[in-house]
Design brief:
Elements: H1 9-27, H2 30-37, H3 41-47, H4 51-74, H5 80-97, H6 101-110, H7 118-140, H8 149-165, H9 167-175, H10 185-201
Amino acid sequence: MGRKARVSPDRILAAAEVEFAARGFAGARVDRIARRARVNKAMIYYHFRSKQELYRALLRRMFQTIGDRLREVAASDDSPAAKIDRVVATLAELVGEHAHLPAVMLREIADGGARLDRDTLAALAALPAVVAGIVQQGVTEGAFRPVPPIFAYFAMVAPIIFYRASAPIRAEVTDLHLVDLRLTPEAFVHHMQEAQRRILAGAGPSPSRPTS
């Protein structure tokens, strides 16, 4: 009988997150992940049959974690506007907890999602689906103007990812006194929430069609 594995996959996934964020899928090495996780390579292959499976498992875990938290928000008795505020705060909090997530996601986007299989895409698709449900609830109740749900989703996710990913550059630009790009995470979330409320509820006249 084989020996029971003693190393949690979570430790391997945490090490993999750092490696994939720093070097992308192509540049990542299983031996470096093993050293960071303080395991041998055989233990990694015990849990994950290949580097690609390890990478997909990492992404699925991230997406599932975010999806679970967003579904909690969607299932609450809050108003649609309050749910949107909580979605923004939840996304920002989770991205902050997984500091390497923005880099991993931006690298995968740049590669055109080449390594996202059906199961990983299904886990990813659950995120805009939850946001779409909240937006549709707001539209149905008259709290929101009709907005394409995918637009609402990207209007939330993209700035959060870019804000976190650009932190080192923003700090350097500020330190060089080129322009002050300081913005605390708390202030960023506050302004994001306010912007989303305006996007969804603001139905003012179009600048290109002035009223008489």
